Amino acid sequence: ANEAFIAVWGARLGKASFRAEIEHRMVEDEKAGWKLTYRRVTPRWASYSGINNGQIRYVRAIAVCNDRAALFTINYSRSEKLPYDPLVVRMVRSLKA
Questions:
Q1: Residues of the chain with pLDDT under 70
Q2: What are residue 25's phi and psi, to 5 degrees?
Q3: pLDDT reported for residue 75
Q4: Sheet architecture: strand order including 55-64
């Protein structure tokens, strides 16, 4: 199935640091079968991506005011990588720390 999925949301970090929150999300995705192929975590923003069963997942997060983060996740078929690449780049640019 060539179904794409996108989610955009805000999260309250509570006691967890931004880095800890992202590292937790990466671990959970790996447990769910995603093989992470790229990861970059800084104190203000993070991106990672992975593959699972012919699907690509790209996750972007930024730290925002107080103890909050803004995130998006996009999943799409590996066969659709070329048309989706510019969309992902545009979304990453729109979610600036």
A1: 1-2, 97
A2: -60, -40
A3: 96
A4: 5-12, 68-77, 55-64, 45-52, 35-41
* Region of residue 53 (phi > 0: left; psi between -120 and 50: alpha; otherwise: beta): left
What is the DSSP code string of the chain? Answer: ----EEEEEEEE-TTS-HHHHHHHHHHHHHHTT-EEEEEEE-SSEEEEEEEETTEEEEEEEEEETTTEEEEEEEEEEGGGHHHHHHHHHHHHHHS--
Instruction: Give the residue among 73, 63, 53 at the shortest CA–CA distance from 12.
Output: 63
Q: How far apart are CA 72 and CA 48, in angstroms?
A: 11
Distance CA 84, CA 74 (A): 10
- Record the tokens describing residue 4, joined without a space: 């794409």
